[in-house]
Design a protein that fits this description.
heterotrimer; A alpha/beta; B mainly alpha; C mainly alpha; A: alpha/beta; Rossmann fold; 6-stranded mixed β-sheet; globular; disordered C terminus; B: about 5% strand
Chain lengths: ~500, ~350, ~350
């Protein structure tokens, strides 16, 4: 018997200035299923969730709840809650300074004579949690419990508010294996009770552990909806990354110089940072472009950040040209000749109100120290030099960087680091959210810099682009470096297999 | 390293409160030993802590409410001065009856809180800037009403101020052989009632719990369906009201209005709340703690009076030092929690 | 038409438009009410007149607002202890010079020692604020509130609750004038501090560091800036500025009056920064704007005095101005203005269509 349909979203369209975030996307959720929503960065997962929960509005399309023929529009998370849709985020959206019981009941506290009836509230909280096999002290503050328990309390709150549709947005990102197991048990219990769960995650293993169905999005469009048994891991990765299997062999690689004979420039041994990246070993040679690949959240940025000192590593060591480095902060790394273009351009890259010139000079200036101000003339010279070199489109060097387009902002940040003449440059998603032309330019630039002897670490979600420039790739999964691929082995298929990991080859 | 572990393990809230109560007890016992000859152990000395700080108890309660919601109000000292001056001027120059004058003053406080709250919650201006402006505004208004000191001579008002309520116990026989019972003034009763009401409000009403939720995590509170801006606005309005009530009690104690009155009172109120365990970052705190904060401040004052030769400025400096100490303690707890 | 519109827009969007407009408004008002406002006369080799008086009286405020500008830019918070630090500096200087007496007609200790120790004390106050804000991450206003109240207490203790007079002609010079120079010395002191600061900002990378940290501290960290060190520095500098202002104020009245030196100056300094077109949430700043703002406020103060508003009552008007300016800067007001604009524009186009 076909299970009842809980939610139908049809032809949902949403645009942000310059981008189509959702292009006529359909989504269906049935009672008693766990439905994974998958896709890489910019695929439109979070926008779809936001449309559903009323956090953003949408231009066209319909949403139906259950068998109801009446269209609904959620204008706020509260309205969505009334329609039986609740969301539990990775960052638990509860109040840690309140008791567990209150977190379950805030806004709808049981009352007696106009006052909150604590006794009843605690009793009912205990009942609700016991029903989900969570046995904790409900009068203790939520902050005393682990993130896992907090998440389960959040789920309990949603369930208690008679949510039939539960959205779990990357709930497992900060949980350890035991905790994930507990969460899965809870999810299965809810599923048995007829709740429909939308599960957003980056961990493939987990998808195959609990989910019944997968919907894949890519670049704002629906790729398809699949039953889990009909979609092997490798195919899922291919669908997410946008290569159909037949095309895989067609990708041509450019001329990548052989650097295997060179001495390592950077050598990391057992470097790790608790909670973000498990200890790893890595060697990077002079003039080499090394790619970091893995799905979003696999720890690729975190690996780069621990090298650069942006997250302070708590174990292991880094050597540069054989000498041990003490990298405690980005400045230390810069002084050793490193540069880092961060993933999040807006929040960690640009200094919005400053001009293009100032944004370019700031890193070199910080390296030189406060008393050795770069001469104004010198600044203007190198600014116009880089504007020309990278073809940055700006009204003038004095234009605030926030007025530039994303691609041009990225070029300015690139110029910032090139100016410091680093020996080792980390580029974390330098091509995300910028136009195709600029993408190609940046790829060419990377190849050119490597030819000139610079070592580059390149992180991207697009395998094709990495294949063009990287001579070797390190693969990450679940915050762990799981392997390296180089030379003849380097192909889309192999990379995807490595990313998919585990039983990924079962599909072949 | 060991110290860090200590901060991690200990529950910040209950620890801070016990430090505060312990500090008060220790200070009081020291006082009883050092000033034994001057009668520090007399129950009346203890009651005087309440009598001279009745206004502060109420104002600190209001401050606690605002701080729990994640805000702050540094205008309270000036507002108290303005209320005292208004009372004095209404009754002495305007010929308005005492109850009417009190009523107008309470309303003024309410409106003051409403305006400040509106600017903070709906205009989104930093609470500091708003209440700093409020602080100067109220102080200036006090001067506009009158730059001269006005003494209150209204009979009814003075009657309220000096009606002694004797306790049925704890008396002693004086030299003349009559039994003297310790007493309090009506202002203390009002202050304690206000304190209990705020306590109950914080613990047992939806609004009270919303304050904690908003102060703890604004984003979450919003997602859980609370109207964050309204909660904040209400917090400032309540604070404005309590502040004016505190002002009236303050006037009952000082029986005068002058421009320089209650200078630095905002510091006393904030310090009392912080010493009593209210977090500057919001979300944690309760008025019982703040009461002990007030009592600690009162004890320091009593020390200085009993000692006799120290300048009264020492009170201010000690309070500031205590505030600094507790702020540092708070930030250590916060850091430990982050590392968790 | 569009050309004029464009030019008007260019003028109104200039950084110094707001401060200059405000200054012009205050001056215009004065000319209207006081015909001889701009009249300058010479008596005993000194220049006299309303404008000279304003420029002279504004000196302390100018110095304070320079320090405050950097604090606001780097930390997005304000230092409300400056008035109290002024009185601490004055008290310490007079205490050293008087050797503990309450009125002296001769220095008991070298003049330089008094000045140096006073500046050192203000530096320490700045360090205390900086430590709380930059290292312990306490909200700037709470951190500086401690010295805001305790500072005057300390000053009272130093002067033992009395006004300490230094009746030495040499002590008055800083607050009055050197014979032969027609302008009062505080004016030069203010210009000196402004020039030195401007020079340091121009010749070192400090200016851009401060702005970077104020705009985006995360990105600043990744390009190798140490934000806490920079924020710490601005508070220390603000303390030092307050110390200098305190010395000038003390020299004017050749005494240390712990209760009144620097009274209500913190609001004036914040107002100067806001009037200077600087956002109180940090980031880009204009030193010149703040300085113009400071002179504007002094002009406003003098004007209000002329209208028989007493010193005690002044804060009412200034508080209203602060709230108005900050409200106009707020996102809520921006939204309102935009709504209004679009309504007006749509009204226009409708009319055109009709």
């Amino acid at each position: 018997m076909e299970p009842a349909i809980l939610l139908k979203m049809r032809n949902i369209r949403k645009t942000f200035p310059g981008v189509v975030a959702l292009d006529n996307v359909d989504f269906t959720l049935r009672a008693g299923e766990i439905h994974a929503l998958m896709g890489e960065n910019g695929a439109g997962k979070s926008t779809l969730i936001k449309v559903l929960t009323g956090a953003v509005d949408f231009e066209s399309g319909e949403i139906y709840i259950g068998d109801n023929q009446q269209r609904i529009v959620n204008r706020s998370p509260q309205e969505a809650q009334k329609n039986g849709i609740s969301t539990v985020y990775q960052e638990v959206n509860l109040c840690p300074n309140l008791s567990v019981a209150e977190n379950l009941f805030i806004g709808m506290e049981p009352k007696k004579g106009g006052f909150i009836d604590w006794k009843t509230m605690k009793k009912r909280a205990k009942e609700v949690l016991a029903g989900l096999d969570i046995n904790i002290d409900v009068s203790a503050n939520l902050e005393n419990y682990s993130i896992a328990v907090q998440q389960m309390v959040a789920i309990a709150r949603a369930v208690n508010m008679s949510a039939k549709i539960l959205i779990l947005d990357e709930p497992t990102s900060s949980l350890d294996d035991d905790e994930v197991e507990k969460l899965f048990n809870l999810m299965k219990k809810l599923k048995a009770g007829g709740t429909g769960i939308i599960f957003v995650t980056h961990f493939l293993e987990q998808v195959y552990a609990v989910c019944d169905r997968i919907t894949v999005l890519r670049n704002g469009a629906l790729v398809g909806e699949y039953e889990i048994e009909n979609l092997p891991r490798l195919e899922l990765v291919a669908k997410m990354l946008g290569k159909s299997f037949d095309d895989l062999e067609a990708i041509k690689r450019g001329n990548i110089p052989d650097v295997s004979g060179e001495n390592p420039l950077i050598e990391a041994k057992g470097l790790g940072c608790t909670g973000t990246i498990k200890p790893f070993d890595l060697q990077i040679k002079k003039g080499e472009v090394i790619g970091l690949t893995g799905l979003l959240g696999s720890g690729r940025s975190e690996l780069a950040r621990s090298l650069y000192g942006a997250d302070r590593a708590d174990c292991g060591e880094i050597r540069m040209k054989g000498e041990k480095l003490a990298v405690k902060s980005p400045l230390d790394a810069m002084k050793c000749g490193m540069g880092y273009l961060p993933e999040n351009r807006k929040e960690e890259g640009i200094i919005a109100d400053l001009s293009v010139r100032e944004n370019i000079m700031i890193a070199l200036q910080a390296k030189r120290g406060v008393f050795k101000l770069l001469g104004r003339k010198e600044q203007e010279e190198f600014t116009s030099e880089y504007i020309k070199l990278l073809q940055i489109k700006t009204a003038s060097p004095e234009t605030p960087i926030k007025q530039l387009s994303g691609g041009n902002q990225q070029k300015v940040i690139l110029a910032r680091w090139l100016l410091t003449h680093p020996e080792f440059l980390i580029l974390d998603e330098p091509t995300r959210g910028i136009d195709v032309g600029t993408k190609t330019e940046i790829q060419k630039l990377i190849a050119k810099l490597a030819d000139e002897g610079m070592s580059i670490m390149f992180i991207s979600s697009e395998i094709e682009e990495m294949l063009r420039v990287c001579g070797r790739m390190a693969v990450l999964r679940d915050r762990k470096k799981v392997g390296e691929i180089s030379g003849e082995e380097l192909s889309s298929e192999n990379i995807m297999k490595a990313i998919a990991g585990g039983a990924g080859n079962a599909g072949n | 390293m060991k110290l860090e572990n200590f901060f991690k393990k200990v529950n910040g809230q209950s620890f801070m409160l016990s430090v505060t109560i312990g500090l008060f007890a220790v200070m009081y016992i020291i006082g009883m030993i050092v000033f034994a000859s001057k009668g520090f152990s007399n129950l009346q000395v203890f009651l005087n802590l309440f009598i001279s700080n009745a206004g502060l108890i109420v104002v600190a309660s209001g401050m606690t409410v605002v701080m729990i919601a994640g805000g702050i109000d540094i205008s309270v000292g000036s507002v108290v001065a303005m209320i005292c001056m208004m009372l004095a001027s209404f009754m002495e120059k305007g010929g308005i009856s005492a109850p009417a004058a009190v009523l107008i003053c309470l309303l003024t406080g309410l409106v003051f809180g409403l305006v400040q709250g509106f600017l903070v919650s709906y205009f989104g201006i930093q609470p500091f800037i708003v209440t700093l402006a409020g602080m100067f505004f109220a102080r200036g208004m006090t001067a506009i009403i009158s730059t001269e000191m006005i003494s209150i001579k209204n009979e009814l008002f003075l009657k309220w101020a000096t009606a002694k309520i004797y306790l049925p116990f704890g008396g002693y026989v004086n030299k003349k052989g009559t039994m003297i019972y310790p007493y309090i003034y009506p202002s203390v009763v009002v202050a304690l009632i206000a304190l209990v009401l705020v306590f109950a409000m914080l613990k047992y009403t939806k609004f009270g719990r919303s304050l904690y939720a908003v102060g703890g995590n604004e984003q979450s509170a919003m997602l859980m369906g609370l109207d964050v801006r309204k909660v904040k606005l209400k917090a400032y309005v309540l604070n404005g009201f309590l502040c004016s009530l505190g002002g009236v009690l303050f006037a009952l104690n000082s029986c005068s209005g002058f421009v320089e009155q209650a200078k630095g009172f905002e510091m006393d109120a904030i310090a009392s709340a912080v010493i009593g365990g209210t977090l500057l970052t919001g979300g944690v705190g309760n008025v019982i703690g703040s009461l002990f904060g007030v009592l600690i401040k009162g004890t320091i004052e009593t020390f200085i009076t009993f000692q006799g030769t120290l300048s009264s400025w020492w009170t201010r400096i000690t309070i500031a030092a205590l505030l600094a100490f507790f702020i540092v303690l708070q930030s250590l707890f916060a850091k430990a929690k982050e590392k968790k | 038409m569009p050309e004029i519109k464009g030019r008007i827009k260019k003028i109104t969007s200039h950084r110094l438009f707001l401060p200059l407009l405000c200054l012009a408004l205050v001056l215009l008002f004065n000319i209207a009410t006081t015909p001889d406002f701009f009249k300058i006369s010479i008596k005993n080799g000194m220049l006299y007149g309303y404008t000279i008086d304003i420029i002279n009286r504004a000196s302390e405020l100018v110095i304070l607002s320079i320090g405050m500008t950097l604090v606001v830019a780097a930390s997005g918070g304000t230092d409300i202890s400056v008035g109290a630090v002024m009185s601490v500096a004055a008290a310490i200087c007079c205490f050293i010079l008087s050797g503990g007496e309450h009125s002296v007609s001769q220095y008991q200790n070298p003049f330089a020692l008094g000045i140096i120790l006073a500046l050192l004390a203000s530096l320490l106050c700045g360090c205390f604020n900086g430590l709380l804000v930059a290292k312990l991450k306490i909200q700037p206003m709470v951190a500086t509130l401690i010295l805001f109240t305790a500072g005057r207490g300390i000053a009272q203790l130093v002067t033992e609750g009395q006004i300490t007079y230094i009746r030495v002609p040499g002590y008055k010079i800083l607050g009055s004038a050197i014979p032969g120079i027609p302008l009062p010395l505080p004016v030069f002191a203010a210009v000196f501090v402004a020039l030195i600061t401007a020079l340091v900002l121009k010749k070192t990378a400090l200016g851009i560091y401060i702005q970077s940290v104020g705009i985006n501290s995360k990105a600043s960290r990744l390009v190798g800036l140490k934000s806490s060190a920079i924020i710490f520095f601005t508070y220390v500098f603000s303390g030092l500025c307050a110390g200098m202002a305190g010395l000038i104020a003390s020299s004017r009245i050749y005494s240390a009056d712990a209760n009144n030196i620097g009274l209500n100056m913190e609001l004036d300094a914040i107002l100067a920064v806001a009037l200077g077109g600087n956002s109180l949430s940090g980031g880009k700043f204009s030193l010149l704007g703040s300085i113009i703002g400071a002179y504007t406020i002094q002009a406003l103060t003098t004007t209000l005095y002329a209208m028989n508003v007493s010193a005690d009552q002044l804060p009412v008007y200034k508080a209203v101005v602060v709230v108005l300016i900050v409200s106009l800067q707020s996102p809520f007001a921006h939204k309102l203005l935009q709504k209004l604009k679009s309504r007006l524009l749509s009204g226009n186009s409708q009319r055109r269509a009709a």
